[in-house]
Amino acid sequence: MFAVIRSGGKQYKVASGDVIAVEKLSGNAGDKVEIADILMSGDKIGTLSAPLKGIKVLAEIVRQFRDDKVIIFKKRRRHNYRRKKGHRQYLTEIKIVSIL
Question: For the chain, which residues make up each domain, given as ranges?
Answer without folding.
Answer: 2-99
